[in-house]
Specification:
single chain; alpha+beta; Aminopeptidase; 4-stranded antiparallel beta sheet; globular
Length: about 150
């Protein structure tokens, strides 16, 4: 069973969806990756939120930004799959949902991301190419990538 993907604006998220989303992001980006950083960064209200729901639980999540907010192009960030769901390879479905969401809501297919370096090949399968050198973001190696 694959997740059902929904895209919502910040003010459309229920309190339980917001709580589950923040819990998932904290579990993975702060605890699992052992990275102390400010996940609640004051930008969620500017984003579209992609929720991948399975059996009533958020199993996958990302947020989308309009062109000009992070980069000149639209952007996908905070891409995360709950640990218990990763074997299902739903990351590909999540990125596809994000790409479709950017086309639908922002009327563009040009996307730039700040990708964790170890995910370079994953993003390349979705048409992203590296743009520039490796850099550290919150102590983790990243690369800028884009697709047109």
């Amino acid at each position: 069973m694959k997740p059902e993907f929904k895209i919502k604006r910040f003010n459309e998220l229920s309190l339980s969806e917001l709580y589950e989303t923040l819990q998932l992001r904290s579990e993975v980006f702060v605890v699992e990756q052992d990275c102390v950083y400010q996940d609640i960064d004051g930008k969620d209200d500017k984003a579209l939120h992609v929720l991948g729901v399975v059996d009533g639980k958020i199993a996958a999540y990302s947020r989308l930004f309009a062109p000009g907010y992070y980069f000149d192009n639209a952007s996908i960030g905070r891409v995360v799959i709950g640990q218990e769901y990763r074997a299902n390879k739903w990351g590909h479905d999540l990125i596809a949902a994000g790409i479709d969401g950017i086309k639908e809501y922002y009327d563009t297919s040009a996307i730039t991301i700040s990708a964790q370096l170890y995910l370079k090949k994953f993003y390349e399968t979705h048409g992203f190419v590296q743009d520039g050198e490796e850099y550290l973001e919150d102590g983790i190696p990243h690369i800028k990538m884009h697709r047109d």
